[in-house]
């Protein structure tokens, strides 16, 4: 793809002064040991298929579930498991549930030993690499679940109840669906509506307005931005849709496809220079490079910074420190200038909390059935109320009073319409996205230790290395 387009304000941005490191496991142990076979697996016998049991679940077999214990916690999963026991009373007392943040460390040995759980929420900083799992034939194709009747309406298949784009996120090549994303995450620039209103400020719809607001806030002793400096792969939550807005969807597609010059696009240059300007002008909260996600969110809750790039899980994750009058809101990336390819309001929204059913699980049908239950209205509404997030079920909010952040996120998503982007780098190439581009490139630039030009070169170098690595399975947009 050739990148020759020019952007009006790009040169103006040049008026600027020109996680600790988190290790993301690459599952080398799994790559070396997993054989991908399932011949020796002693799976439970199938049950009798019926209208109430369309997946032919063994009605007395146990179920082994592992949930990532992050911003959403695990209570929503426990509630769904209780519904599973109601549907299959003979499983009472046979549901093994565990929650952890150490997904890779806890589960790689189980995959290697051929005894993985039946259902896994493969999320967090230590999530297992999906590309490796798929290429090593470690996952169950979920199309049987997707083609089963939905819990609420037997005349509708599960696949027909999902939000747009969710099913495709679980595909890597071909028609198989290996991952089902349960949450539906709205990414963007999060802020306190009450704090802006207190000072008579409005959310900036252009980058010039953003810089002007940050300058005014600085005079008031308030930083413009903060972010998890220890885990700077949060920055793309607002930076990637900013790049797409400037240069069009094809810019992100080229990045996802590991194309040779993807990170040299004018839109990437403009976006990097804009974000670097925040750092160069002192609009980033002092000490941010040393903050983790919780510390940065607490500082934001305390009004020390106006904006933070994040996903819609942030409302639940910060509920203990968010003041009652905070009135959380989320904004779309500001427009760079009139040359932007996509309109203001363009956002990144996509499935979150990726669930997988291992191929060598003892009770894979039970794992799929629990997912079917979770995608019913009752479990979805419980999830929404408990964790302030939408689910991948297209609906479920009817009759619910949404908290401020989630109400703002849903409004933002509705206004975006078709202008929703979904970068795939974070699920196709986990290590590249988090450890390399996120920490070693963007983190260094935003800490003031690397120029935008150097950051672009570093990102391209990392992408090229991944593209040439024969051990890494490659994926492309269709």
From TrEMBL:
Keyword check for Lipoprotein: no
Keyword vocabulary terms for this entry: Signal, Transport
Pfam families referenced in this protein's UniProt entry, alphabetically: SBP_bac_8 (PF13416)
Keyword Nucleotide-binding among UniProt keywords: no
Domain of life: Bacteria
Subcellular location as annotated: Cell envelope
One CC-aspect GO term: cell envelope
Cited InterPro entries: Bact_solute-bd_prot1, Chitin_NgcE, SBP
Gene3D superfamilies: Periplasmic binding protein-like II
UniProt record similarity statement: Belongs to the bacterial solute-binding protein 1 family.
NCBIfam families per record: chitin_NgcE
Protein name (database record): Carbohydrate ABC transporter, N-acetylglucosamine/diacetylchitobiose-binding protein
Organism expressing this protein natively: Streptomyces buecherae
């Amino acid at each position: 793809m050739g990148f020759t387009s020019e952007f009006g304000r790009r040169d103006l941005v040049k008026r600027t002064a020109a996680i600790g490191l988190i290790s993301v496991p690459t599952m080398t142990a799994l790559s070396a040991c997993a054989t991908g076979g399932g011949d020796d697996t002693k799976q439970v016998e199938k049950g009798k298929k019926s209208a109430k049991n369309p997946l032919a679940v063994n009605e007395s077999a146990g179920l082994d579930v592992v949930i990532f214990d992050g911003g959403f916690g695990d209570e929503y999963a426990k509630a769904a498991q209780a519904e599973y026991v109601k549907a299959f009373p003979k499983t009472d007392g046979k549901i093994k549930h565990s929650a952890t943040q150490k997904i890779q460390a806890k589960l790689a040995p189980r995959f290697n030993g051929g005894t993985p759980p039946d259902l896994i929420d493969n999320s967090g900083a230590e999530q297992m690499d999906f590309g490796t799992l798929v290429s090593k034939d470690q996952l169950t194709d979920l199309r049987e679940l997707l083609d089963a009747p939905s819990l609420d309406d037997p005349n509708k298949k599960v696949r027909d109840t999902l939000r747009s784009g969710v099913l495709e996120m679980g595909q890597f090549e071909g028609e198989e669906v290996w991952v089902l994303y349960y949450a539906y995450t709205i990414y963007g620039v999060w802020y306190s509506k009450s704090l802006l209103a207190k000072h008579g400020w409005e959310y900036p719809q252009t980058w010039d307005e953003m810089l002007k607001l940050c300058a005014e806030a600085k005079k008031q002793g308030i930083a413009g931005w903060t972010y998890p400096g220890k885990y700077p792969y949060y920055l793309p939550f607002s930076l990637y849709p900013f790049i797409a807005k400037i240069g069009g969807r094809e810019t992100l597609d080229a990045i996802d496809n590991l194309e040779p010059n993807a990170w040299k696009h004018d839109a990437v240059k403009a976006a990097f220079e804009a974000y670097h300007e925040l750092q160069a002008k002192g609009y980033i909260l002092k000490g941010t490079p040393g903050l983790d996600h919780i510390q940065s969110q607490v500082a934001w809750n305390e009004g020390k910074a106006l904006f933070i790039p994040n996903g819609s899980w942030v409302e639940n994750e910060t509920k203990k420190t968010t003041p009652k009058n905070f009135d959380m809101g989320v904004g779309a990336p500001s427009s760079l200038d009139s040359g932007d390819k996509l309109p203001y309001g363009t956002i990144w929204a996509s499935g979150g909390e990726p669930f997988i059913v291992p191929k060598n699980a003892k009770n894979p049908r039970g794992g799929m059935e629990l997912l079917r239950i979770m995608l019913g209205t009752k479990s979805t509404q419980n999830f929404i109320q408990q964790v302030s997030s939408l689910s991948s079920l297209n609906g479920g909010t009817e009759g619910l009073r949404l908290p401020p952040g989630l109400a703002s996120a849903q409004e933002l998503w509705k206004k975006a319409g078709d202008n929703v982007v979904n970068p795939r780098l974070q699920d196709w190439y986990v290590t590249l996205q988090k450890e390399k581009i996120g920490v070693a490139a963007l983190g260094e630039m935003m800490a003031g230790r690397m120029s935008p030009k150097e950051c672009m070169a570093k990102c391209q170098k990392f992408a090229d290395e991944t593209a040439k690595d024969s051990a890494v399975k490659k994926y492309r947009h269709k």
